[in-house]
Amino acid sequence: MGEELRLPIAADVDVVEARQQGRALAAVAGFSSGEQTVIAAAISEIARNILMYAKKGEITLSLVQNGDRQGVSIIATDQGPGIPDIDRAMQYGYSTSHGVGAGLPGAKRLMDEFDVDSVVGQGTTITMKKWRRAI
Amino acid sequence: MEVPILRQGQYLIASIQSALTDADLSHLREALIAQVGRSRCRGVIVDVTALDVMDSFAVRTLRDIAHMARLRGAETVIVGIQPDVAFAMVQLGLTLKGVATVLDLEEGLAFLNRRTEERFLETKHRRPSDRG
Amino acid sequence: MDTKKSMSVSTRASDATALSESSAGLLRELVAHLRQNRTQLREEWARRITRAELLTAMTEEEIFAEATAVYDNYVEALETGTFEALQAYSRRLSERIIPRGVETDEVVGIVLLLRDVLARSLFTKYQDNVEKLNRILDSYEPAANRIANTVAVGFVEERERIIRQQQEAIRELSTPVLQVRERLLILPIIGVIDPQRARQLTEQLLRAIRANRAKVVVIDVTGVAAMDSGVANHLVQTVEASRLLGATVIVTGLSPEIAQTLVTIGVDLSEMATVGDLQGGIEEAERLLADRVAIPGPQAGREPGTELNR
Predict the structure, then answer these.
(1) pLDDT digit string, tens, across residues C72-105
(2) C239: distance to nearest CA of chain A, Å?
(3) What are residue B79's DSSP bridge partners?
(4) CA neighbor of C89 nearest in space, from C67, C109, C57
(5) What is the model's pTM?
(6) Segment 195-234 of chain C within 8 Å of chain A by CB
(7) Interchain contact, C202 vs B89, CB within 8 Å
(8) Span A62-90, pLDDT tens digits
């Protein structure tokens, strides 16, 4: 606990790497295979967002604990253009790229905790967590 | 990573072997569209059994493939979406509406055969004067 | 006057230092005493446990064995002032004794008895030095209370964990997916559905679709009393996910209330295949299976002949 895995996101192979590492970490935390896939999907969306809008950034994966519940924490940071209107970006269905865009609202639906911190011109930090049902 | 595309009669079968990057998916789309355009292809099967995650880019790409193929007279069917992947997809809010999805390759071929037959019957009934 | 005052202040200050220094020393003395007298204190404790008729589910040998481990962990916690090891031990112990039928009051009881046994031995040892006894108790009491708390809480948490595990197992057993004929699955849902159970149902159904190569699934919700919008959403997701696996879903037994909930969350009921009752749903499913052409190429638009709503 307390160890984190920092993954650079600069190319689309990094998106795959990030979601596979996320899946592996979720497995260590004891998530079911279905939940592992959900976590991998959320990471994929967020990592791709970094590539698309900021060109590069970083994803930090770590295990977290809350009482007797275990979980995973995913922090995505970039020094990109930032999100001008976070509320609008979080409205489901909104997408600046054409067609199906799950992006932020999609990832939020999958996670238990989801925070967006963004300053236009400086960058964005997205923190998301998923908790195992305490057993 | 190149996705192998096989030809089976009038159908093309693309089998995805492992996790694909966005670039790989885009290449697959271009390759399929080119091949559909080149030959008298009636159907396209994309086998995603080995795909670990179906995220928005993958779904967009598959829909593009189906759309392009249809413009060239071919029907597309996606086969082999894993239970976990399907569940994650619907939770993400992604749908493959408008694209046929079936369980596996066998079902995929059966589906394309049916569709080909149906379309043949449709055209037959529509233009009876052209028969013969 | 001033000198006297400053003298008494500095005396108090040095007293305080002397006190804090010696309280560490006192703790060491206390721990040494508990270790030296380990055998008889442990026996005294075991005797008291039996007299109080606690841990009746266990044999005397078992009680003694566990008492030894608890005693040693107790003293170590006193010595180190850290409680993680004790917490971990407490949960392992609880894991062992809960299936034997040991109750919370027994666990709390024996820990308190140990606290009493050790305190009494301190009274005996320091009966000639009340001031020292008080100082030793100052160190001992807060630690002993913290220990009792740690053990009790560890036990309770372990119990709760086991109960949740059992509930999970029951849920798993009570949601069977039935294969009635080739390629047709029925999922009767009964009772109250919470989000966790809903998710479990979906996972089980999707796996069953794949394992049985099902083409039609009948989900019967006749036995579901009420459905909030969260669970209704979940039902819709289940239908969509099943389609992705190539299976058509027929929902049967929708009460007017549940139908209303679905409409409220934006479900287009004309898009969802529904039939009044389970029997009707099965018949419809068999018709679909027989008439292969009429099964919609899933998602490829609605095809004529699949309006099933009645």
Answers:
(1) 888 888 888 888 888 888 888 888 888 888 888 8
(2) 17
(3) B47, B102
(4) C67
(5) 0.70
(6) 196, 199, 203
(7) no
(8) 999 887 789 999 999 999 999 888 887 78
